[in-house]
């Protein structure tokens, strides 16, 4: 009889084979495909975009005949460009695999606001596509904007007027930030939509590419026992947490322009929250499902009242006694900066399902651990103190761990092993690294690139989502910046300001100190 680990690995291999077979049938695999990476010489392209494309190429999720063209202002040869990105690729594959991928990569130098440069790019793409051998005749093109927002519109206009494919589809992927406030977001969206159709624009938020985030719709709506519990009758509070155990590490100058609310909460955590709180979409798979999901997300956002300073706790980390510097010790941070590195906010969803249930977002740098999770705490078991003769009955919690070590676990109360009726908290645990050890599970960027190729926009941000999210946070940001609210100090490596824990207590959240999930 085979052991369970062998069975698990066999399942993992089968799942990977099924995924690959499904991808091979996709339309984009049969036709000519050109992928253009704008900002190819920058850090984002080198560290994220090209390694993700390499991952797809190595695992045969993009066609072997793909043409990948890097576009940037720097002047360099193909060989020089290959040398710049090779080390990042070698972290994901061997030399033979890297060389095979690089043989499909070329480099093109041009300005982002120069239409003639995009016309020359079009000639280069046409030449590459004309020599491509495949069964399909269409020429599909994907343009990834790994560039600063101030050149988004010029590049979008240049591509539209001079570098589009005359056959097949054309799609652009736009990186955050999507504006600095509501007005700038509306301006950028308006300008972009004046050039490209919404169904061609893919606003990327990499949190929507995480395995556990993509699992939320299946987990919520595919399990009979769970969906009836997710409402104000049973749920005490929902907490969505992002924690980093390191500071800005000399890059505080960039961070200081945004702060933790713009950098994490207004986009990443709001996207997660909408998937937790939304009503069931018409479909979560099949024809038309991307817009059904995004319609449900927008409805949630529109039911949340704008935040004010009374709804948040703001913090900024200071040095500890172990040699870790405070935020203001970072030489790239302006003297006296009051930019928060920590924020905790209480949001209220005014729907019949969630009225009265606090949704708490917590995000911070230089905290006690690195993790991102969704924690749904249920209400006290009725009459538990009497039923269990005065014993404390901890609340049930459903936890979805987004990173690290993806997992779903349900904190439940059981009888402590032994001869006495003693309560003990344990868990029902699905840890992905043990249940699916060998399944191909790419990182978020890789998944989202693949979704773009497949034409699935469910995991991308629609313009009305963007506007609705900014309407929640814009008044708060204007208030704290106009009033020059000073963030509360917290020590590097701590849980954050003590006032944040006090906010949790006021929201009705309890912590059971004896429990530890391994």
Can you put this structure into words, describing what you see?
It is a single chain. By secondary structure, the chain is α/β, with parallel strands linked by helices. The chain has helices spanning 4-24, 27-30, 43-58, 78-90, 95-102, 115-130, 152-162, 182-195, 211-214, 216-221, 252-255, 259-277, 289-302, 384-387, 432-435, 444-454, 463-482, 498-506; strands spanning 32-38, 67-72, 105-109, 139-145, 170-175, 201-204, 235-243, 312-318, 342-348, 358-364, 371-378, 397-403, 407-415, 423-431, 488-491.
Shape: globular
Work out the helicity level: 25-40%
Mean pLDDT rating: 90
Uncertain regions: pLDDT < 50 for 5+ in a row? none
SSE inventory with pairings:
Layout: H1 4-24, H2 27-30, E1 32-38, H3 43-58, E2 67-72, H4 78-90, H5 95-102, E3 105-109, H6 115-130, E4 139-145, H7 152-162, E5 170-175, H8 182-195, E6 201-204, H9 211-214, H10 216-221, E7 235-243, H11 252-255, H12 259-277, H13 289-302, E8 312-318, E9 342-348, E10 358-364, E11 371-378, H14 384-387, E12 397-403, E13 407-415, E14 423-431, H15 432-435, H16 444-454, H17 463-482, E15 488-491, H18 498-506
Parallel strand pairs: 1-2, 1-4, 2-3, 4-5, 5-6, 7-10, 8-15
Antiparallel strand pairs: 7-11, 8-9, 9-10, 11-12, 12-13, 13-14
Helix pairs in contact: 3-4, 3-16, 6-7, 7-8, 8-17, 12-13, 12-17, 13-17
Summarize the structure.
The chain is α/β, with parallel strands linked by helices and 518 residues long. The chain is 38% helix and 20% strand. It contains 18 helices and 15 strands.
